[in-house]
Amino acid sequence: MRINDLANRKIWFQVTEHKAVYHMDELSRVDIPYPQANAKNLFVRDDKKRNFYLITVKGDKRVDLKKFRKANQTRPLSFGSESELMEILGLTAGSVTPFGVLNDEEKRVKLFLDRDFFESPGLIGVHPNDNRATVWLRTEDLLNIIREHGNEAEVVSV
Fold first, then answer.
1. What three-state secondary structure class fits 155?
2. In the chain, what's the furthest Cα-to-Cα distance?
3. C-alpha 104: how far from chain center
4. Per-residue pLDDT tens for 104-133?
5. Which residues contact 86 (CB under 8 A, 6 or more apart)?
6. Global confidence as pTM
7. How many CB atoms lie within 10 A of CB 132?
8. DSSP 4-24
């Protein structure tokens, strides 16, 4: 996602540039304006390698893939490989973001977005396909962008 695309769509956003971060613990050492809205993203696939998902949760949450699978009726889940991540989303490890779903021309990835992001102030912070910045925007706007692209997106409790 290009920042100009957000501006052209008249979507409110704010950008925080920072050193490259690859894990949530690294981000905790960066001064960010909305730490409660920062997202953690898990690129996963089912055991048949047919269904790919992006699970986006608040940064302080842990995701139990077995519980997630049962709650969302998927086949057994494991993390997607770096080659799958690059092939499908055009991203490298450490740069996973819902904006990467916009690179998914075949619409293979379903986004599962944590319901907690809709609580006040209703913001989410995600990488703009580059882990040296965080884009803050309204969660509803992000969800609409993904759905308008044509990928499935579901709001879930994690």
1. strand
2. 40
3. 13
4. 999 999 999 999 999 999 999 999 988 889
5. 92
6. 0.93
7. 12
8. HHHHHTT--EEEEE-S---SH
